[in-house]
Amino acid sequence: MERAPEFTKEQIAAAQYYASLTPPIDLDPRIASLVRDLIGRVADKWTMLILDVLAEKSPLRFSRLSELVEGISQKMLTQTLRAMERDGLVVRTVYPVVPPKVEYKLTDLGITLGAAFCGVWVWAANNLDTVEKARQEFDQRPR
Amino acid sequence: MERAPEFTKEQIAAAQYYASLTPPIDLDPRIASLVRDLIGRVADKWTMLILDVLAEKSPLRFSRLSELVEGISQKMLTQTLRAMERDGLVVRTVYPVVPPKVEYKLTDLGITLGAAFCGVWVWAANNLDTVEKARQEFDQRPR
DNA sequence: CCGGATCCCGAGTGATACTG
DNA sequence: CAGTATCACTCGGGATCCGG
Fold this sequence. Notes:
The structure is a homodimer of 143-residue chains.
Chain A: H1 9-20, H2 29-42, H3 45-56, E1 60-61, H4 62-68, H5 74-86, E2 90-95, E3 101-106, H6 108-140
Antiparallel strand pairs in A: 1-3, 2-3
Helix pairs in contact in A: 1-6, 3-6
Chain A binds a DNA duplex (20 and 20 nucleotides) through residues 61-63, 73-79, 94, 96-102.
């Protein structure tokens, strides 16, 4: 239980590689604005969390998802899944049985987004205590 | 103005590399929960957008930031910058002059987070029209 | 019984005005 | 210029209801 992280060596290497790159550079202004819009929708707490559990295990039923995505309300789960379906990130399959059974799984597009977010997960895991330390320091600074 | 994307070859390569990786794998449950918390705070629309403009050009004054981060209110700008400062992502420098001058720049930690988000930006730029097409299709599907 | 739609309420967000 | 204060409003969470 001590350590635990455990990413593949490839993931670590990729993260370090990313970290060595220059930051994002600019695009055509019109496209850039569209990209920002898209980022705005996709850079959402619940979207990322849902994406993550679906990336690990898929397909999943609605009820299983609400267990695995810790802290989410049914409302936001439904809502976020709908948006993700609309954006082509997940497919929703309804089985006409009783009791109802609805499964969600990532599309190929969703999988690539999950992979893109991978760097953020690695970052979070690696810098957890750095951030924690920064917070404590900040909170103790004189007002 | 035609095309325009233009990422470095290294960025493209890194993105493709990421996309080829397996999705994030699990950690120690306790740590995983902390990581999720951190993701929750950092995977925020405004945080990403601010991070991006600061990554491109830094340091920036408050007023310049509010111009560059399109659509943000002063309130959310202040609030998000404070949170980012607390998390050790940005440094805030106050010059005791009149009129006031306050500059924000990324810390090294902030730079690495920006780099980690890079994959998402690349994804968004690459899949813009795929998403747009998916939306149109979805919206036209019978109710 | 499961998936999810609806309603209500409190917290968070945005626009505007104001201040050191 | 860089914020804070105020207020109206939207959005998210929880409980409840419902159709298959």
